Amino acid sequence: MATAAAIEDQIRTIDPDEERAFMDAIDRWLEREVIPVVQHHDHGDIWPEKLVEQMAEMGLFGATIGQEYGGLGLPATTYAKIVMRISSYWMAITGIFNSHLIMAAAVERFGTPEQKMRWLPKFATGEIRGGLALTEPNAGTDLQAIRTVAKKNADGDYVINGTKTWISNALNGQCFAMLVKTDPDANPRYKGMSLFIADKHDGLTTGKKFDKLGYKAIDSAELIMEDYVVPADQLIGGVEGQGFFQATGGLELGRINVAARGVGLAEGSLRLATEYAQQRETMGKPIAQHQAIQLKLGEMVTKARAARLLTLDASEAYDKGERCDKEAGIAKYYASEAAVENSQEAMRIYGGYSYSKEYDIERYYRDSMLMCIGEGTNEMQRMIIAKQHLKENQI
């Protein structure tokens, strides 16, 4: 049994003053650089190139990558707070570095020493950016249904054929953690799946970019592989058949990120609704003084607070190196639903003005629903939560 000291050594921590300074820097960046351009990029669905460069300069592409590889080595709790803060003003841009960090986490947790030394320093600086390539036209939540296949050629390298879809950073990323089948006949199916570091070169092209309801400015598109050759030394971990667990292990961090984004949307919706309710007057007084509005605000405050605490709970478990699929699922489920409900209530508080693109609240409403779908649907989250609960409480 591990001693308390040994467990303590596993926990990634940060000095509170250092965390506070980092959050202050994020606030200054949001005020000076992000808030003034959100509507321009969101309404035009324009890639925020300048902001991406600034995120790289701040180290966000290496936020959770270990310091030994040039990253910031931030604990998941601090990372979640950063995502919450940014998402409370503009959720979409957090997806640019989140997808990238899930890819990096797969390499850092499961890669060979050579893979870590080759790729992680470039991931940490943002010199090479990318994401996670799991979803296919016929495989979303059911990852074991993927059809993309990798076969070894005479040189010992892998030739990949197939299509990935809804891939974040597909257009502007250069590298992806790609899940494929190296043994399509394996039973059970997950034993035939492997994860590769797939960098862009001949044979890997970008398909159509999706025109989305929300989550604008970040590209979501297809990746098409036609006789795409990947060197054998880019098989993560160097052993076939481990890809399913490597990919789903990375989703713990991804679900914590989605939960943090949900918190940001819930808190941002609350902030906007609170400001508007104190400015808008009906019947001779601000609508915030009407009981009907106070009931809505009280519910919104509670949901935002609960979502934040659940997300920090999952983050702390992740930092300790514990299995946290249940905690991450709880946080992702609750926070994403809180984002939807708070944005809807804020729309009602704004009334007719909520339907105008001159007001930011309509963006929060458009962006929030994605949180219930991304990184595993909320229906699947509830099943994961229930299965883990039953496993822990067998009679």
CATH superfamily of the largest domain: Butyryl-CoA Dehydrogenase, subunit A, domain 3
Low-confidence segments = 1-10
What overall form do the CA principal axes indicate?
A: globular
Count helical runs. Answer: 12
* Beta-strand fraction estimate: 5-15%
The assembly state of the depicted protein chains is single chain
Q: What percent of the residues sit in helical stretches (DSSP H or I)?
A: 40-55%
What is the CATH topology assignment of the largest domain?
Answer: Butyryl-CoA Dehydrogenase, subunit A, domain 3
The count of β-strands is: 9
End-to-end distance, in Å? 25 Å
Write up this protein.
By secondary structure, the chain is an alpha+beta fold. It has three domains: 115 residues, Acyl-CoA dehydrogenase/oxidase, N-terminal domain (Butyryl-Coa Dehydrogenase, subunit A, domain 1, Orthogonal Bundle); 115 residues, Butyryl-CoA Dehydrogenase, subunit A, domain 2 (Beta Barrel); 144 residues, Up-down Bundle (Butyryl-CoA Dehydrogenase, subunit A, domain 3), CATH 1.20.140. The chain is built from twelve helices and nine strands. The strands form three sheets. The chain has a four-stranded antiparallel beta sheet with strand order 2-3-7-6, with helices on one face. Strand 2 and strand 3 form a beta hairpin. Helix 6 packs antiparallel against helix 7. It is globular. The two termini are 25 Å apart.
